[in-house]
Specification:
The chain is of the alpha/beta class and about 290 residues long. The chain is about 35% helix and about 20% strand. It binds 2'-monophosphoadenosine-5'-diphosphate (ATR). The site of 2'-monophosphoadenosine-5'-diphosphate has 15 residues, from α6.
């Protein structure tokens, strides 16, 4: 939609921001819903985040912002009100502006929950959660809400133990032992973002019975291994769309057009096969 004088503004702030796919699917969704608005990427350095938010409050037609790395924690302090989830997760990815006030929400956790539940039931499942950073906190919040049995591992063990105490789950130190006893493996670390990252662990320990979820939206070596074995798997692509969809719902009150949003990313060149909901028996060539 071509912006007009009457248009409202939404956007995403991060540093860097050039990689962000949110403008692609949010603009398509706004246009599909017939909302007179544009969604803009804002590259904002951490040093000026406070000034940016103060300025944004003064822009009367700026109604909402998504927040990405590295600002998700800092925006909490800069908001007037925070949702219960933001309080517990300690990070926000959605800001709603209304009459000069800012309310902070977190839709990453619900984005994870919706997408993970499209490949597997979580209740009572044993989940090995890899990582103890900001993303892990949102995923952990979702997993505990869904009543999964979580085992938390992190490269820096103290962080896993601290987070596990906070969320009352179990921290584990030996990945090899844990892998034998879990149903689902979830990666929230940054390992796999770059194609030549050394693997997090020996991926030959993954078996066809595991469901593998990686919140990185491109195909990582971990996901590739799951595909090779015929496991149920999911990349971070659906989570990306669902978290954005929930932000859109918070801002506009409209039902997000999920299929339209997914399609816009596919047209933009983003992945074709992001989930497998049934385990496949793969026959090795003889
Ligand atoms: P995010 O907000 O994306 O979660 P973060 O808070 O910086 O980012 O967390 C990054 C996570 O990836 C952490 O769990 C980190 O482990 P440490 O706590 O030990 O730093 C993990 N991580 C990053 N690089 C890693 C690597 N090479 N091997 C294992 N874990 C790694």
């Amino acid at each position: 939609m071509t912006p007009k004088g009457t248009s409202s503004i939404y956007g995403v702030i991060g540093f860097p921001i050039k990689h962000s796919l949110s403008p692609v699917f949010q603009n398509r969704a706004l246009s599909h819903l017939g909302i007179d608005a544009v969604y803009i990427p804002f590259e904002v350095r951490p040093q000026v985040l406070k000034e940016f938010i103060e300025g944004a409050r003064q822009i009367e037609n700026l109604l909402g912002l998504n927040v990405t790395i590295p600002h998700k924690e800092a925006v909490v302090e800069l908001s007037d009100r925070v949702s219960e989830e933001v309080e517990k997760i300690g990070a926000a990815n959605t800001l709603k502006f209304e009459g000069g006030t800012v309310e902070a929400f977190n839709t990453d956790w619900v984005g994870f929950l919706r997408s993970a539940e499209s490949v597997t039931n979580l209740k009572g499942k044993r989940v090995l959660l890899l990582g103890a950073g900001g993303s892990s906190r949102a995923v952990l919040y979702a997993l505990t809400k869904a009543k999964a049995e979580v085992y938390l591992w992190n490269r820096t063990p103290e962080k896993a133990h601290r987070l596990a105490r906070e969320f009352q789950v179990e921290a584990i130190d030996s990945l090899e032992d844990a892998l034998k006893g879990v149903d689902i493996v979830v990666n929230t670390t940054s390992v796999g973002l770059k194609e030549n990252d050394p693997p997090l662990f020996d991926y030959s320990l993954i078996t066809p019975e595991h469901t593998v979820i990686d919140i990185i939206y491109r195909e990582t070596p971990l996901i590739r291994r799951a595909k090779e074995l015929g496991c149920k798997y999911q990349t971070g692509f659906p989570m990306l769309v669902y978290q954005g969809a929930e932000s859109l719902r918070i801002w506009t009150g409209c039902e997000p057009p999920i299929k339209v949003m997914e399609m816009s990313l596919k047209e933009y060149g983003y992945p074709i096969e992001h989930s497998k909901t049934h385990r496949q028996t793969l026959h090795q060539p003889s």
